[in-house]
Amino acid sequence: MRTVFTGGYALCLDAMLRTLGCARFDLGYEPDRFLLAESNLFEAHTIFAEVRGPDHKDTLECVRGLIDLSDSWQAAEPNKGYDAKAAEWRAKLEAAAPPPEPVAAPND
């Protein structure tokens, strides 16, 4: 997929990586599986951030996935720094610009 989905098709790769990372996470805790899930979500986040921007909903969805993964990892393996990773991702989510307010249509 990395060979085929490049350039204008990079978002297809991103979506697949995000889905794969979330699926691996949803299967439950297993150290190697969580490591692969983190790698998939991080790669998807990097591409989405470059292509769509850091505040785009797809980019932020990856951030939420990384927060959930880090929180679960912290619960499974306390004292290994996963709480710090979760805090870093939460800070990115909190720093994201809020969506623009809808503009009201003028009354006729």
Quick recap of the structure?
With 108 residues, the chain is mostly helical. It has four helices and no strands.
Strands, total number: 0
Number of helices: 4
Number of domains: 1
Over all CA atoms, what is the radius of gyration?
A: 16 Å
What does this structure look like?
The protein is mainly α and 108 residues long. It has one domain. Helix content is 68%, strand content 0%. It contains four helices and no strands. α3 runs antiparallel to α4. The protein is globular, with a radius of gyration of 16 Å. The mean pLDDT is 88.
Question: What descriptive keywords fit this protein?
Answer:
single chain, 108 residues, mainly alpha, 0% strand, globular
List the helices and strands and how they pair.
Elements: H1 10-26, H2 31-52, H3 57-76, H4 82-95
Helix pairs in contact: 1-2, 1-3, 2-3, 3-4
